[in-house]
Give the backbone structure.
Amino acid sequence: MEDLHIWNPPEVAKPSARYSHCALVPPDFQLLEIGGQVGVAPDGSLAPDIEGQTRQALQNLDAVLRANGMCYDDVFRLTIHLTSRADLPGYRAASGVLSSEVPRVATLLFVSGLFDPAWKIEITASAARRHPQMGT
């Protein structure tokens, strides 16, 4: 996330959790928008609990990032949809891979349901990295 400006403007209240209010992506960066990743494994299986679904959704996110030559460190924005407030501790326990020195821009939503009623989590993300042809 080097050279991305991830910050909290002083004119806005401090974040209520560990996240940042905004990220400014320079023009010489490639931008990747990642659609909702859920806890379904490539073989179609689905863990019954939030921890397992969170781990799988993050593995799916990682696979999309790697397919585009990126990694978790390139993610600057996350939107997490959970179907139950009771799942928040389990999500937090399983999502440690998302920790970073600079808190990402993030939104956490509790929704009444996802496309498949068995899904407990969906994660969307934005990632950016310096365009390889633009130098460092």
